[in-house]
Amino acid sequence: MVWIVISPMLRISAGERWDPINWLINDVGRFQAILYVGLFIVLMMVCATVAQIMLMLKTSKRHLWSIGSVAAIVFLPPIAFGIAQVNPHLTPFVWLFSSFPWATMGHSSTPLVLFALLFDVGILAFLNSYLSDQVKSVGQSETQEIAVS
């Protein structure tokens, strides 16, 4: 994110080659690039929360459930969009909610990216409240076991 903010001050030019800095600043925009970084960070936090929820299960193979659920979150949407031939340049809305929102960079509007970010933050808040409720219930049951013995 620091690179995105200070890149205009660096005055780096790629010469006649494709210049990713100018593309990021002029075509995409710094604010939208920061929103894409935010989408990626929120997705990683959602994956971490889902992994923690799966690790709270009482099954014997909960680590496999955790790995499988995070892998499903990351890989299933792009695979499904690829099979359905959903082009990220033509329909960026659905790709913003997948694990590869950067595929739509430069092809989606800033309000659309901001909406996707707010939606993902809402999902993260819901998952974290569910996880905190589970942690509280586990803590209460362990406290009751200590009090009984």
What does this structure look like?
The chain is 73% helix and 0% strand. It has one domain (39-148). α3 (30-55) crosses α4. The model has no long low-confidence stretch (mean pLDDT 83). It is mostly helical. The longest helix has 39 residues, at 110-148. The radius of gyration is 20 Å and the shape is elongated.
How many domains? The number is 1
Mean pLDDT over the residues: 83
Tell me, what's the shape? elongated
Strand content: under 5%
User: What is the SS-derived class?
Assistant: mainly alpha
Helices, by number, come to 6
Give the tally of β-strands: 0
State the gist of this model.
With 149 residues, this protein is mainly alpha-helical.
Core attributes:
149 residues; mainly alpha; 0% strand
SSE topology:
Elements: H1 2-10, H2 20-28, H3 30-55, H4 62-83, H5 92-95, H6 110-148
Helix pairs in contact: 2-3, 3-4, 3-6
